[in-house]
Amino acid sequence: MEVDGSTIYSLAARHIYTVSPSPFSRLFHLSKLVTMPLSRHIDANSVIESCKDHPHKQHLNTHSQRARATYHQSWSRDSGADVPKYTMPKNGIPSKSAYQLLHDELTLDGNPTLNLASFVQTWMPEEAEKLIIENMNKNAVDLDEYPACQVIHNRCVSMIADLWKAPTATQAVGTATAGSSEAIMLGGLALKKRWQSALTSANPPRDPYHPGPNIIFGANAQVALEKFARYWDVETRLVPVKAKNDFIMDPRDAIKLVDENTIGIIVIMGSTYTGHFEDVQLMSDLLDDLQKRTGIDVPIHVDAASGGFFAPFAYPNYKWAFDVPRVHSINTSGHKFGLVYPGLGWIVWKDETFLHKDLIFELHYLGSVEYSYTLNFSKPAAPFIAQMFNFLNLGFDGYRKIALKGLKNARLLSRALEGTYFTVLSNVHKPASPPAAGAAGLVKKAADVLYDEEDPERYQRGLPVVSFRLSDEFMKENPNIKQEWISIMLRAKGWIVPNYGAPPNEEKTEMLRVVVRETLSEDLVERLIADILEVTEGLMGMSPSQSPFGNNASGSFVVSSSSVWDDDVEGDEEEFYTVSPSSPPMVLCASEPPSFKSPVVPYLPTPSPSPPLSTPTPFYARNPTTLHNPLTTIITFLTSLPSSITSTLVSSYHAIHTATADPRTIIPIFQSGLASIAQFASSFIFYLTLPFTSSNLNPTSTSTSRSIHDSSYPMTSILNKRFFASPQTAGDAKDIMTASLAASSAA
Ligand SMILES: *Cc1c(COP(=O)(O)O)cnc(C)c1O
């Protein structure tokens, strides 16, 4: 039976999710499905369900087939989980089982350290975690009960206001929020209220509903800004951005959109696309000028979600905050460069008068009054306690050190990319001023030597973000390569590096982006560079028919493993499967009875001869924490492969599922096969073996022959054993391999 990648998917899914194999009758429903691309036509749940139903019904538990599909089937040595997935269980399961179930499921998530798509902090010191745990049961709104929390909160606001150069003459006010998004809602609402009250108190009063308020920001804005406008009925006036302008708002374009109903302009300190800072000072100057000419007075809110805790440390003299007169309010995310775990934002107003009284709620307690201006009532206190921990622990210098390290690593990455196949769109590696010509240039160059090369002021300002795309020359030489493949292939190596279109107006430009957070060490950057280059070079010179993800690829897989199926073959199926009746129903273990050595597998391409197994590749020793959603990877890779690749993969798949107990024996096939895809293929194998082991990479785990037939026994252990248990000798493996090859060519 020829099937495409989706069947492989279902096979993989079976191995992962079920213990009992399924009957062929159900599988053959599948054959109708498998001619269609997985992404559009196959309902994974029904595939999985159809694969679950197998004659070995004695292994099923008491639930009906239908119900079974919606049950969690997890494992735990103390007691397995057996609870409905979509309705609340009537009776609970032991805490250990609940833990194991969720813990295992969550291992499918990407690895946060390698998630270079996110600005959000993924690490805090142990002491911070201790404080968080000690205080995570405290609700910040309970002022009487937790006055110390309130004091710490207020001290945070005070430190942040000072960091942002709030003048001492005015009374700055602020609050913690769930993140920048909530903070932007509050900042925007304050602008709207201010505008409304100006209208109603005008003489004669103007109607605040017709034509209604508008707000201006760049097309590069984060979604939270548009959310504010839509949620609070404010017209969005999006300033188009241009590639030549670094994909950020040009204040000269923004000013053209202002009218008397503009409640404010949001200037972004740290564009999410490229890390560039928009020019707050220029915006303020232009608005001053506008006011002089027209009397229209428009304030600025700065969205400093990322820049708020970065610019003050990296560029202490840069004017963007409350030292720019028109800036009324600033938001930031404590959980980005504030270096706190997710769940914390801040907003500060330069002067309490910028906050309309209607927005402030008085909370009276113990004879004193506290003011509250938030969208949420209850809120955890732990995040801002963790923020204060950072303030105390790092201090200004500590934050600065981390900022400089991030910029340094961003420069390293940028230069490596620019020196090879890429064009870098972010700017923190570019000199602040272009080198002067002639003698002046030479003098400057000489002087530069004396400067501190790590001083960020020597380079253009921005967040430690590296946005890049394949260079024009590269694209000319390799017109068939899609940039997004790099992102997909990097994902197979564990890295999460998004590839996305530039903001509206320039969306045809695609960019890859790496956020250089504290946890992306120089060591990791070096690995990342090596992996980006390896992946890119792996794609070079591909013809359209070879492209790993191309549209014209015709994928087909041969389902080969007799051991996967049982002996309940009926009717037509026999034409496709000749199954050794004595082979175990599902998994072949190297140490199982010898029956597994005689699989009869028709319709298989003959694998290329296997070279001697001299140097076992120790890839089973990979660190499990670098693993991430293997299933997605398999699906992505397999759904549309060209046949040259599939035949190699099929050989490997065959070998894995029929005879070979050790993935090491597979690798030579790849090496002798298509050299250019060897790396790709080995990662396929790696991922194929991964799902079985990601929850438990214990190489000493053993299982018994009986356990294979025991539906309650964890699949993971069985497969662990198969791939990771007491290593057989290379000689053994070779024998098995040879036997398998002989068997398949005989067939
Ligand atoms: C991240 C981000 C936001 C949203 O912040 P959250 O803290 O995730 O709510 C808004 N604006 C910009 C520029 C951002 O980078």
UniProtKB/TrEMBL annotation:
A Gene Ontology cellular component where this protein is annotated is: cytosol
Its catalytic activity?
A: L-glutamate + H(+) = 4-aminobutanoate + CO2
Q: Which SUPFAM superfamilies does the UniProt record give?
A: PLP-dependent transferases
Which Pfam families would you find in this protein's record? Pyridoxal_deC
Keywords from the named record: Decarboxylase, Lyase, Pyridoxal phosphate
The EC number(s) this enzyme carries: 4.1.1.15
Q: Which GO terms describe its molecular function?
A: glutamate decarboxylase activity; pyridoxal phosphate binding
Entry cofactors:
pyridoxal 5'-phosphate
What the entry lists under InterPro entries is as follows: Glutamate_decarboxylase, PyrdxlP-dep_de-COase, PyrdxlP-dep_Trfase, PyrdxlP-dep_Trfase_major
Q: Which family does it belong to?
A: Belongs to the group II decarboxylase family.
Q: What is this protein's name?
A: Glutamate decarboxylase
Q: Which organism is it from?
A: Rickenella mellea
